[in-house]
Design a protein that fits this description.
With about 90 residues, the protein is mainly beta. It has a single domain (about 1-10, about 20-85), classed as OB fold (Dihydrolipoamide Acetyltransferase, E2P). The protein contains 1 helix and 5 strands, in the order E-E-E-E-H-E. The chain has one helix at about 60-70, and strands at about 1-10, 25-30, 40-45, 55-60, 80-85. Strands 1-2-3-5-4 form a 5-stranded mixed beta barrel. The radius of gyration is 13 Å and the shape is globular. The two termini are about 20 Å apart.
Length: about 90
């Protein structure tokens, strides 16, 4: 599971047929403080109606993405699994 901030939408004029009707978002991994960037941004299919600016939990593993989004042979690699309301640090 990866904590990430949605930083934009991905649009394409040509796409694989399994992406029809799906929204692909650009996600920037962040540290637990929710502000500091952690690594490179990646594309993830949205399964929870997230949008730019939202803090989300993502899975970057093909099997998890396929289980949430589609069939066993679909080319999904990353999926947004939830929108985070609050992060609490401490004991």
């Amino acid at each position: 599971m990866i904590l990430a901030r949605v930083i934009g939408n991905a649009v394409s004029s040509q796409k694989h047929p399994v992406y029809e009707g799906k929204i692909v978002l650009v996600c920037q991994p962040v540290k637990r403080d929710t502000k500091t960037k952690l690594g490179s941004a990646f594309l993830a299919c949205d399964s929870v109606q997230a949008g730019p600016g939202d803090l989300v939990v993502c899975a970057r593993e093909g099997n998890a993405a396929r289980q949430v989004l589609g069939g066993p042979d679909d080319p999904f690699h990353a999926v947004i699994l939830g929108i985070v309301d609050e992060v609490t640090l401490g004991a």
